[in-house]
């Protein structure tokens, strides 16, 4: 069974968002050293209940996106299509971490899937 392992908050102004969530919940933000602006969010101590997430600047998805870990992005892309979902953003590498893709479910809700693979480039 696949589980939610990550969430992403999409905000047009990441500075306002980090100030808001950091101020309200005490979350810690660290800029990711990757090809696009992305902030890793630490929501609590390791070993405590909950998951960590990310923050990115995507104005046309003004929602929180849950990401589900899967064994194969390619296999699940087919499965999602078979069940009426559609690709919102195709598979891409997250260097040194794995592969991610985003979809819309049958109600238009955006979600992600992630395949761990440290050799992803």
What does it look like?
The protein has 121 residues and is α+β, with helices and mostly antiparallel strands. It has two domains: 1-61, 2,3-Dihydroxybiphenyl 1,2-Dioxygenase, domain 1 (Roll); 70-121, 2,3-Dihydroxybiphenyl 1,2-Dioxygenase, domain 1 (Roll), CATH 3.10.180. Helices cover 18% and strands 40% of the residues. It contains two helices and eight strands. It has an eight-stranded mixed beta sheet, with helices on one face. The chain starts with a strand and ends in a 5-residue tail after the last strand. The mean pLDDT is 91.
Based on the model shown, name its key terms.
alpha+beta; 121 residues; 2,3-Dihydroxybiphenyl 1,2-Dioxygenase, domain 1; 2 helices; 2 domains
Briefly summarize what is shown.
This protein has 121 residues and is α+β, with helices and mostly antiparallel strands. The model has no long low-confidence stretch (mean pLDDT 91).
Q: Kindly report the oligomeric state of this protein.
A: single chain
Helicity range:
10-25%
Structural domain count? 2
CATH superfamily of the largest domain: 2,3-Dihydroxybiphenyl 1,2-Dioxygenase, domain 1
Termini Cα gap: 27 Å
The biggest sheet, with number of strands, parallel, antiparallel or mixed sense and barrel status, is: 8 strands, mixed
Give me the Rg, rounded. 15 Å
With strands numbered from the N-terminus, the spatial order across the biggest sheet is 2-3-4-1-5-8-7-6
Count every beta strand, where a strand is a DSSP E run of 2 or more residues. Answer: 8
User: What is the molecular shape?
Assistant: globular
Strand residue content: 35-45%
Q: What is the correct CATH architecture of the largest domain?
A: Roll
Give the ordered list of helices and strands: EHEEEEHEEE
Supply the CATH class of the largest domain: Alpha Beta
Which class best fits the helix and strand makeup?
A: alpha+beta
- Which runs of at least 5 residues are low in confidence (pLDDT < 50)? none
């Amino acid at each position: 069974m696949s589980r939610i392992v990550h969430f992403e908050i999409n905000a047009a102004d990441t500075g306002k968002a980090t100030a808001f969530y950091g101020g309200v919940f005490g979350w810690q933000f660290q800029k990711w050293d990757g090809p696009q602006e992305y902030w890793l969010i630490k929501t609590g101590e390791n070993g405590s209940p909950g998951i960590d997430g990310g923050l990115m600047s995507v104005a046309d998805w003004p929602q929180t996106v849950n990401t589900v870990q899967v064994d194969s992005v390619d296999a699940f892309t087919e499965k999602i299509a078979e069940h009426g979902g559609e690709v919102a953003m195709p598979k891409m590498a997250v260097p040194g971490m794995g592969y991610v893709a985003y979809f819309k479910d049958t109600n238009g809700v955006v979600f992600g899937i992630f395949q761990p693979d440290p050799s992803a480039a």
